[in-house]
Fold each of these.
Amino acid sequence: MTFRKGATLTRVALAAGLATVLSFVAYAQPGGAPPPPPYTPAEGAKDLKSVLVNWPWHMGMLRGIEEHELAVTLEYRGEGTIQVNGQPCAIAPYKEAREGELGTSGYRISNAYQFAGSRTQIECTLPNGRKYSNVEVVSGKYAWDEDRPGAGLVPGEGTAKPMREKVDERLIRLWASPQGAPKAALAGAGIDPLKVFRNPGGLLAEGTSKIGNTSVTWDGATPVVTFPIPGVDGATAVARLDDRFMTESVVVKNGRDTYEFAYSNYNDYNNELNRIES
């Protein structure tokens, strides 16, 4: 994954093959009404509804017999190098927390889509050998840094520092992530990612290139989806998908700032008997 912002080219470069863990919620049809059958886009279909079903389906987000979009939380773990104050910072090797410890070492992102929240834990080493450690958090309209995960929840255990100026940037990271982007695109088309857990095919109009504030164009065989970033007024994202409808890049413009994200080398870490595209 590569991330760049504006002319400063702040970059997060992580090793290929990010490990991700999704969690899902169970869904019950209200009133016992029979659910609509899953929607399967026709091969080669280029309307927005087809793209907004193919995209989360190939990203492993449509689950169960009825293929509802049920992803509510996601964990990223990374390795490689990030930029800290313009300097490269080598990420510490990932280590699972032992009993009684809070969090993990290395680079870890915990995203939650039901309340638009994200926590990024960073531990890395600068060229001079100095260790850098920080926890970056956003939840709705609030952002803060922690010196340890959950700082301040228990009096005397850790310090939380308000970071109001970072709200927009951190929400953009959340909604421009590989799974966050299709959720944001669906939100722009009128499907609230915080409330609606349904197969998107049963909720979208067919045969059009624009629904609500989300639209699709095609660059040859490449779908290009434009959508607003939830919670960041005026921020617009443009996502390019690869030939498997996987998130390849997302460029977000927010006022004078431009954020660029690039993703590649996807892999399916499920058991071979439960592959997403089996």
Amino acid sequence: MEAAGRLLHRNWDKYDTRQVVYKTAGLTAEELKQGYDWAYKSFYSWSNIVKASTQHDEVKHMLKHFAYAGGWKKFEPAWNFMIKSKALNKTLPVLEAVLAKVKGKQRPAPDNPSPFPAIA
């Protein structure tokens, strides 16, 4: 990309997946950004967050998934503010509680522990 002159800048603060930092072969920077914003909004819609949360077997796992996905993805401007204002440490107990492993019954191990499908 660099050799082809497709990098728009080297401001590493903007390399966060939300900002266009290179020229694409088939889209304008605005089209790429609009596509990203649409996909992000669709994927992290409240209905999708609820749907993904309810896929867990136990209510405590459902609630944890909902708190994490909803809290992080739907309140991102608030998190960005907390990070930039250096106030994130004040939320540490809440973050630790949400991110801590939830203890519960173990799921049975799959017949094929490989991440690749079995070939018959």
